[in-house]
Amino acid sequence: QVQLVESGGGLVQAGGSLRLSCTASGRTFSNYAMGWFRQAPGKEREFVTHISRMGINKYYTDSVRGRFTISRDNTKNTVYLQMNSLKPEDTAVYYCAAASVRAYNSDWYGRAGEYTYWGQGTLVTVSS
Fold first, then answer.
1. Which of 62, 96, 97, 109 could share a disulfide with 22, CB 3.0–4.6 Å?
2. Are residues 63 and 88 in contact, defined by beta-carbon separation less than 8 angstroms?
3. 108-125 pLDDT, tens per residue?
């Protein structure tokens, strides 16, 4: 079992920044690739970004590329999501998730069903 706890959400004005954290406990954090997903009111959960277990491979959805940065610190069992130039459409509950390591020969990292463990989510609200 891996327990994931997100933090760092809040209310920010458009153009502002937030940094989300997700801290893991339980099994060895560096054995897992990590992803961030988000779910806006009335919408389905969508992929935001992903980082491989050693931080070498990173993937972003088009709408956040260039504004968001994912990183991880395996010594602290934590993955981060730095969000800059926030827009009202970024408003959502943000979830971190852990996936078992596998080859990057497909876009499996973008599918929520490929992740085994999930945090409870943290709300990000961007006002216009």
1. 96
2. no
3. 999 999 999 999 999 999
